[in-house]
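TASK: fixed-backbone design
INPUT:
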């Protein structure tokens, strides 16, 4: 018996197969091994990191290839940063990369945005306004109603 063909599943499997081939490619591995890998702690800053269902930001969202820099929020205060090993980044540039990471997630392919706390507009960066603009809806969080006790 022939069933229906799930073309979306076929496409996802094709993408996964390509990703596995790239991960196993010695040239790709060497390329990433030559990069500097750093965990940036932003807990002292007033800005929290956000993430999405498409969490990696490549080249601050400008182009996907070649990969010069990659950022990934590990939690609200820790950012994984991969960059060329020869480059030194000062504190001001790191702050700009954090802001760039958050704003680039808004323009990414993700459908969902995740934040530990309510997004707020700051005096310079209007993150809440930007999120509402890109996602086309309010960023108000929805919480489940409290459970009723059986008393």
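OUTPUT:
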């Amino acid at each position: 018996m022939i069933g229906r063909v799930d073309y979306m599943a076929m496409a996802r499997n094709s993408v996964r197969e390509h990703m596995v081939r790239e991960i196993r490619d010695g040239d790709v591995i060497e390329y990433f091994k030559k990069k500097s890998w750093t965990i940036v702690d932003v807990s002292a800053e007033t800005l929290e990191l956000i993430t999405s269902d498409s969490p990696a930001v490549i080249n601050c969202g400008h182009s996907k290839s070649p990969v010069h820099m990659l950022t990934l929020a590990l939690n609200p205060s820790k950012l994984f940063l991969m960059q060329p090993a020869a480059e030194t980044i000062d504190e001001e540039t790191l702050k700009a990369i954090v802001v760039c990471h958050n704003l680039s997630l808004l323009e990414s392919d993700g459908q969902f945005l995740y934040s530990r706390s309510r997004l707020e507009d700051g005096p310079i960066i209007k993150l809440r306004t930007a999120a509402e603009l890109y996602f086309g809806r309010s960023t108000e969080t929805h919480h489940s109603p409290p459970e009723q006790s059986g008393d």
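COMMENT: The first strand starts at residue 35 and ends at 41.
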